[in-house]
Structures are given as C-alpha cells and as structure tokens.
Amino acid sequence: MQPPLHQTIEDFFRRFQVSVPKPVCAWDPEWPSPCETFDPFTQDDSRLIHWQPLPRAHSDDDFAGLERAIERTIHADIKTYYGAFWSNNINVISPDGRCSLLFLWSPRDRDRLIENLVGHAFACKVNKTPFSVFFACTEDPDDYYLTVNNDTGVVQLEAPAQQPIREVAPSLAEFLISLSMPEGDTVPTQR
After folding, report:
1. Residue 129 pLDDT > 60, yes or no?
2. Quick check: is 183 in a domain?
3. How many structural domains are present in the chain?
4. What pLDDT, on a 0 to 100 scale, did the predictor assign at position 189?
5. Lowest pLDDT segment from 20-34, 57-71, 84-98, 156-170
6. DSSP 122
7. Is residue 191 pLDDT above 70, yes or no?
8. What CATH number is attached to the domain comprising 116?
9. 186 in helix, strand or coil?
10. pLDDT for 66-77, tens place per residue?
C-alpha cells in the first residue's frame, strides 16, 4: 500500500536534502522567500543564496479563488503538492528523463501560479482539452510539461494547448516515488 501523498512529499524532500544538503539558487531581491537561509553571496559574478525547503501549514485556501474563477474544484493531490512546502524548483530524473519540479517559492509566487492556472483553464476550455494542473517541466523536449489530470489524478505529459500525449504515472505519489536526484545539481531553474 502506498503512503499518503503528504508523506510521499515529505519523503521526497528528505531524499533531496540528503542528496543536496546545502542547495543554492540565484538570489533575486525582488522575490524573497521564507526558504532563504543566511545572506546572499557572490560566486563567479553571480548573486546566490542558500535555501532549504520549508514545511508550511497546508491550506486549501491557496486554490479557493481559482476554484471560484473556473467554477470547479482543484484535485486534492495538487492542493497537497503545492500546499506542503515552500521550495525552489528542483531538478530531478524521472524514468522518462530529466525534469524540473515546480514548487512555490513564496506567497507572491503562489499568486503568480494561480494567475497562470486561470489562463491555463481558459486555454483548456478554448482548445477543448481536459483541465489539468502543471507541476513540472521537461528538459527534453523543453516545451512539454507534466500535469495532474484534474478529474482522474493521473500524471500526464502535455504540450501547451494540445490533448495530453500520454499517461506518465497513475498518481502524483507514484510519480514522486519514481524520481532520483541528479548528482551535483544544486542550482535549479530560474523562476
């Protein structure tokens, strides 16, 4: 039997912290995060900051405005995924190749996600595609993303404004369990 999704996410972050004990990312003073630790520093002409995933009080309220705007309930797995931790995006290796998991860096980033999902919901309606919620971007090809089908909860590979290409995993929990961390990959994608 598979553990609950929240436990799977906690396990994922434990594995990440073992693999990358002192993650760093580009520092942007315009996008502060509760994840940031210590002060920014300069390395090779880049401003960087150490950060750590930070558990947050899970809140269904994150998606309440979106649910009202699109007149549908967001799948519980998405609420759990985005509601569990503040974190930078994390590069991982899935059975199908490299991808970058998208996480919420800050409350401001959460607001930006909701705005993007309103636009995505509208595009799904116009293109007559099933509504899904993205949570990762693929590396190759770089214009694909991974989503959770809002009706079924399956993880899908999609291209913008097109029907899902294929099912990747039967659930978000099973997808997260299948991931491994790339060696030496400490500066995830930019926001």
Report:
1. yes
2. no
3. 1
4. 44
5. 57-71
6. H
7. no
8. 3.40.1580.20
9. coil
10. 999 899 999 999
Distances (CA, A) of 97 to 29, 70, 140, 178: 32, 32, 8, 11
pTM of the model: 0.92
For 144, the token pair is 């694909």
For residue 185, tell me if it sits in a domain: no
What interhelical angle do 5-19 and 76-84 show, nearest 10?
A: 30
Gap between the Cα atoms of 189 and 89, Å rounded: 6
- Strands lying side by side in the sheet with 90-94: 90-94, 97-101, 132-138, 145-149, 155-158, 166-169
* Tokens, residue 47: 């401003």
| Residue 182 located in a structural domain | no
Cα–Cα distance for residue pair 129/29, rounded to 1 Å: 38
> Within a domain: residue 10?
yes
Q: Which amino acid is at 3?
A: P
Domain carrying residue 32: 5-177
